[in-house]
Amino acid sequence: MTSRFFSRIRRRLAFDAWRQPRVLLWAAAGVATFGFLVALEIVARDYGLPGPITTQAQEVVFAPKSGFLLYASMALVMVVLTRRERFIAAGAAISIDVVFLLVRWPIDAEMTDGHPFGNGALWVILGCAVIAVTRRTGRERVLLLKGVGLGLLLVAGRKTGDTWLLITSETRPMVLDQYVATADHALGDPSWLVGRIVTAGGPIGAHALDYVYTQLPVAAVVVALYQLRNVAVERRFPSHHLVRTFLAIGLVGPGIYMIFPVVGPIFAYGADGGHWAVANLWPDTAPPINTPQPMPFDEITPRNCMPSLHTAWATAIFIHSRKAPRVLRFAGTFWLIATLAATLGFGYHYGVDLIAGVVFTLTIEAALRSLERGWDRPGIQLVTYGTTVFAALLLSYRYLPTEMAEHPWVYGPLLILAMASVIYGYVRTTKLWEAKAAPERQPEPQPELV
């Protein structure tokens, strides 16, 4: 009787599936991610700030700040469901949101910058996790848990990023904007130039760029859904997709903010910086070439400029949309160009931030692809070279800004050339990988001679 009982438990939990090395790797990654979130929650609490776990838990009941993103995350989970299950999930999410809206409306509940929808999507994601543990077994359980994990990680990545930004403003009282602004003279001060163009374009163009800038995660989900469109049929995820790159960028990037804190031209040289700004120069007058030095700034503005992660994410969308249909390829190109225009035109970034963001993305993408397909010599060389170029960029911004500003016709082309060399290396290496992965063409049979 006892042996039969344990045999049933063994089959229920599908221990054999969990022994697979890839499943164990996913489990280890999940534990590490949860540990990182807990650590970030503790650090945020020490500074009197809500951590990512707290802010995410609040969205189960309160008006969510990431309404669109929650539905995009639910769409990622739905790639593992059948067509009937997708209709049920979507209907349940909408119904739950309607109930929440009907409850909030009579009592006049404040949205506090939140969206009137999104709770239903989060409830459906959590419900899928419960179903995976209690009603699914074996590979089906693992597949559904992977889908839930991707959806929750996308939202958690947003919450983690918000917490990181708050921590940077609390822990980095001095910023390096004068160094970056001086180095930006080598590129012709593109933020000041594009800022004047956007200002002259009026509110319509500015609103369009702002929408592109803020809805970047939704654009990423559209491309990711195309890449994951066959998961429900094949019952497995592709070896590499955009969500992995997005999460890796969001995980590694904020750590660099702690090393190289920069607030951006609209704050350091614009009216938004208040009395902390050097002067109210952006976007009308480029800053003069002086000896740069660290400058104090407030404890509210995030130090999130170096590198430009919006540029990094838009570059990732562009890369992963290259093999999509023409509409998505055009959309990926448009989103990259519009994001670059927004980051510069709104004064959020300097030109050198964008160059660092492109190099950063290509290095992350190369590392993830090498990790998935197995590290070979071209992959190791590309990741090493990209890391070296990225480190050289940061060091030059910090220790050679005056020389760069005084000799723009030398250092400007060198910056562009450094970025172009990483782009060329990435394109060349990926083509080599694809050539090796393509099946060899079998020779046509020759007719026998009679």
Task: List strands and helices in order, with pairings.
Elements: H1 2-13, H2 15-18, H3 21-46, H4 52-58, H5 67-78, H6 83-107, H7 119-134, H8 138-171, E1 174-175, H9 177-183, H10 190-214, H11 216-227, H12 231-234, H13 242-259, H14 265-268, E2 295-296, H15 309-320, H16 326-345, H17 351-373, H18 377-399, H19 401-406, H20 408-437
Antiparallel strand pairs: 1-2
Helix pairs in contact: 3-8, 4-8, 5-7, 5-8, 5-11, 6-7, 7-8, 8-13, 9-18, 10-16, 11-15, 13-15, 13-17, 15-16, 15-17, 17-18, 17-20, 18-20
Low-pLDDT regions? 12-19
Strand proportion, as a percent range, falls in under 5%
Helix content: over 70%
Strand order of the biggest β-sheet: 1-2
- Mean pLDDT score: 84
Q: Kindly report how far apart the N and C termini lie.
A: 75 Å
Cα shape: globular
Work out the count of structural domains.
Answer: 2
Give the radius of gyration: 25 Å
- Please identify the structural class as seen in this structure: mainly alpha
Total beta strands: 2
* Major pleated sheet: 2 strands, antiparallel
Order of helices and strands: HHHHHHHHEHHHHHHEHHHHHH
Helix count? 20
Attribute tags:
450 residues; mainly alpha; 2 domains; two-stranded antiparallel ribbon
In short:
The protein is mainly α and 450 residues long. It contains 20 helices and 2 strands.
